Amino acid sequence: MSPMLEMQSPPGPQTVFNGKSYLYFGGTSYLGLAGRAEVIEAGCAALRQYGVHSATSRSRFGSSPPLLEVEAKAAQFFGAEAAFYFGSGYMTNHILVAALGEGVEAVLVEKSSHYCVLEAARLLDVPLVLFDCRIEGDLEKCLGSYRRVLVMADAVGPSSGKIAPIGEFLCVLKHLDQATLLLDDAHGFGVLGGDGRGMLDEFGLWPKVNGGEGADGVRLVVGGTLSKALGGFGGIIPGTSRFVTQVREASNYFDGASAPGAAVAGSSAKALEIVLAEPGLRERLGENVRLVKDGLRALGLQVPDGKCANFGVSIGGVSNMQRLHAELLERGILLPYVGAYSGIPAEGVLRFAVFANHSQTQLKRLLSEIKTVL
């Protein structure tokens, strides 16, 4: 997307940029909650009652009612005993790594992972090894002689939409003396799994995560954000009470960072309330994703498998995708061309984001216009 385009309305199926409304397929508001009226009003009410923010860290006086409500509703949504809510999903892996480093000989990171995963991996004073999950046997090869490791990856590629080969990871790691698999599920939370709890829910492993028993002797840890499908803002780590306490105490974030703002906490709590009350949102999202992916395949395009609401499609080279982006923009459709981002090919991708509140008429128009400009 051109850096000159300024978003001038809440994100949604129709979003205003530079004074013009576009049919929008960018960003991450997968459940369509970021612009929902009651979510916005809840943020305004919290701002009026509690001020901009508590102006202190969580460990002192910063745990306001909206923040505690977010943690209670997040724990309910994730079927967990507790949850830790903090200011930015980008920090999720940084916070978790601080709690997972004991006894680790090396950190192995899937090379296409998001920037925040790679940054967090460097926090431990142990060797950092990159592996490529697209190359068969590469994780096992990169393990070498290490027997106690932390392995990190995106559960869902942020611009590619490709899913992590969790089964393959577990097959390799189960033979080690100590192994932890840490997944960033920013784009899976609220979208994937029978209860919307993300990729590990999709794989039937959710009861085993974040303080659970693990799988095949491998400790499973996951974190994510409320800022994407779940309609709020900030990072979220659910789990057993013991695990959440360990995470809070291991990182300095709880006692060293300002608490999230009242407005975003109020909106986040309301968005979680809606997600809990309206499971049909996920069903509609799934139907919309299927419609778009099936339609693109019918046009002869290669589309990543899976139910992810975000995915990248390569159509020719850079100039062709820039042309497609520009021609669709002229037709009132904003489908971003992403030229450089973690986990995408050198030529970039057209990155699709499908929302639960896109109408079928809007989705069919997207497909029709793509067919016209191909």
Description:
The protein has 374 residues and is an alpha/beta fold. Helix content is 37%, strand content 17%. It is built from 13 helices and 13 strands. The protein has helices at residues 37-50, 65-77, 92-100, 115-121, 138-143, 166-173, 199-202, 241-250, 253-256, 262-277, 280-298, 318-330, 360-373; strands at residues 14-17, 20-24, 82-86, 106-110, 128-131, 148-154, 178-184, 219-225, 235-239, 310-313, 333-334, 337-338, 349-353. The strands form 3 sheets. It has a 7-stranded mixed β-sheet with strand order 3-9-8-7-6-4-5, with helices on both faces. A 3-stranded mixed β-sheet has the order 1-2-11. Strands 10-13-12 form a 3-stranded antiparallel β-sheet. Helix 4 links the parallel strand 4 (106-110) and strand 5. Helix 1 runs antiparallel to helix 10 and helix 3 (92-100) runs parallel beside helix 4. The mean pLDDT is 96.
